[in-house]
Specification:
Elements: E1 6-10, H1 14-25, E2 29-33, H2 38-42, E3 45-52, E4 60-67, E5 70-71, E6 82-85, H3 92-99, E7 107-111, H4 118-121, E8 130-134, E9 137-141, E10 147-151, E11 154-158, H5 166-177, E12 181-185, H6 188-209, H7 219-231, H8 233-238, H9 247-254, H10 257-270, H11 272-279, H12 287-303, H13 308-318
Helix pairs in contact: 6-7, 6-12, 6-13, 7-9, 7-10, 10-11, 12-13
Amino acid sequence: MRCSVRVLMFGRGVIATVYGWSLEQAGHEVRFLVRPGRAAEYGDRVELDLLDARRRPWGERIRQAWSTSLIEHLDADHDFDVIVVSVGHHHLSAAAEFLAPRIGAATVLVFGNVWDEPADAVAPLPLEQLVWGFPQAGGGFDGDGVLHAALMRRVLFGTLGGEQTSRGSQVRQLFSDAGLRVSEQPDLRGWLLIHFAADAGVHSQGVQLGSLSDLLGRPASFREAMLTSRELLPVLEARGVDLRRHRSSAALFRAPAGLTGHVLSLVTARVPLANVSLAAHTDARAEEPRRVVEDMLAEARRQGVPTPRLDRAGAALAR
């Protein structure tokens, strides 16, 4: 008989909500830690409009009002087994500082973008209680609070070197219980930095157009996104990423950009699973795209790598 795991989602953002829902559906106990005052603002349920691809490649449409349990305080003597932290990379250090005196015996899953050196980004959390992963879901809340999102079949895990721990096995099993297929990335640090460069390329276009949703149906913008990510490969190498270990990830940037841009434009416009994640990002004031571009640009300048395409996005932000 499967044992129920007590899971705390740090915040009630898109990733926390989508995976919190899937974990609760699998029989686990899920709570959300939100800032003081947010519980009343959010209410006790979330309206979901979800494309769930765990069982069907094209996704199963789920529309429901899901009752959630929110808490606004976390004591050091809590009894949560797993804490899932999926926040913008620029909030990760603050989240770690908050959790450090409150972590207790829990395992913390770091579940999202990381740009600083991973161990530094989550200091002072004890590394022996950490597990590293990356979600395969996306979407956004509309003006009425409805979450429009897509949940892919796979979820990514890896280590920062060394062997997988019993905590890592426990968290992998938790997500497997929810019908998700676990993929392993042997060099997770390198993969995370490459993914950040991919995000920087796409966000560089979003900040110039207005929002990510404005990329839909624009092959020229996707072409520029690919070319921007391509010019960032020397930045990754300067950070010590061995691109030979990530040929498949880097191949997208090195392929003919015109062809890649055309394909991505078609896929995101016409394939529902791809469309949902992009179309939901309509907020021109969103902080994450701006911070991704700014932080990548700052690193390129530190490394002395010219990035004329990314510079244009930085100039757009400055305006």
